[in-house]
Automatic annotation (TrEMBL):
It comes from Brassica carinata. It comes from the Eukaryota. This is TatD related DNase. The keyword Metal-binding applies. A divalent metal cation 1 binds at H7, H9, E93, D206.
């Protein structure tokens, strides 16, 4: 079973030093690719380096709405030159936010920066990973005025309404689900998921955030997570195999995890299980479907997926040719 983490932040300072182990254990668990999203000029080079170092990392560059005010006067030129030097990259994380953190950032400024990056994604024919908190009406208005987007949009950790799904889908949107989905009522989540076209479903972790919160099921933990060691749980920290306690929701007989607990990228398995359950699908079926969708979306010109597929095709052709020649 192959999985594709459609949105995460393995360059995040909270887990950067652990990235080699996290990637290794997640890959061993069945995760083939990670779309690693930059959030500001400060981490773009880190993301670029990870893309070079790890075959499984798809680098993405963008300014997240929380960091709009920190951008330099040269930010857009820097971003464009990064895409020129990194053809494997996609766009992200970009977006709009009217939540508690987003309210601290001038919204017209957010919209301006978002539109510039979205226009660039369209021009480069690359998918863009979008953050949206309490601004879905604004997002729909903006994307409608600029769309459609043939290369695709990723509505990451989607928590919008079922009613908006067809509108976004018409513009080229894919809907990516993380552990944050568990904060939505099951009834509402199920209704929304059922509205998503099967060829537009993606799965993600948003690691190190969005730790799944379930009453049962095993989770992977980041070794040395300070939020766990403070509780004296260092013996439970694991980064190569799932651990059934402490439990994410603090259900019967388990320990309630601190809010700051880091999310391991291998916890995409928990997201898979949860979403599959709501959709009345088998885990394997949803894994295959979401993987196929992600591969299609991330197979833009210059992408690692296209390059690897091309190499495999050449290798297969050479082997077939060799076999024919020998016989």
């Amino acid at each position: 079973m192959k999985l594709f983490d459609a949105h995460c932040h393995l360059q995040d300072p909270r887990i950067l030093s652990k990235a080699p182990q996290l990637i290794s254990s997640a890959v061993a668990s069945g995760v083939s690719y990670f779309a690693v999203n930059g959030v500001s000029e400060k981490d773009w080079n880190l993301v670029k380096e990870m893309g070079v170092k790890y075959p499984s990392v798809v680098p993405c560059f963008g300014i997240h709405p929380w960091y709009v005010a920190e951008r330099s006067p040269q930010w857009f030129e820097t971003l464009k030159s990064l895409f020129e030097s990194t053809p494997t990259a996609a766009v992200g994380e970009i977006g709009l936010d009217k939540g508690s953190k987003g309210r601290e950032i001038d919204f017209s400024d957010q919209v301006g920066v978002f539109r510039q990056q979205l226009e660039l994604a369209k021009e480069l024919n690359k998918p863009a990973s979008i953050h949206c908190v309490r601004a879905f009406g604004d997002l729909l208005e903006t994307t409608k005025s600029m769309g459609p987007f043939p290369a695709g949009l990723i509505l990451h950790s989607y928590l919008g309404s079922a009613e908006m799904v067809p509108e976004f889908a018409k513009l080229g949107a894919y809907f990516s689900f993380s552990g944050f989905l568990m904060s939505m009522s099951e009834k509402k989540a199920k209704k929304m998921l059922k509205a998503v076209p099967s060829d537009r479903i993606l799965l993600e972790t948003d690691s190190p955030d969005a730790l799944p919160k379930l009453e049962s099921g095993s989770l992977y933990f980041v070794e040395g997570d300070p939020s766990l060691s403070e509780e004296g749980n260092s013996s439970h920290d694991l980064d190569s195999a799932p651990n059934e306690k402490p439990n994410a929701s603090g259900g019967s007989g388990s320990m309630k995890l601190p809010k700051e607990t880091l999310n391991h990228p291998a916890n995409i398995h928990t997201v898979l299980e949860y979403v599959a359950g709501l959709l009345d699908m088998k885990n394997e079926e949803l894994a295959e479907l979401s993987y196929r969708n992600a591969v299609r979306l991330f197979s833009y010109s210059g992408s690692k997926l296209l390059l690897e597929r091309g190499a495999a095709d050449v290798s297969g052709h050479t082997q077939n040719h060799s076999t024919t020649h020998v016989s």
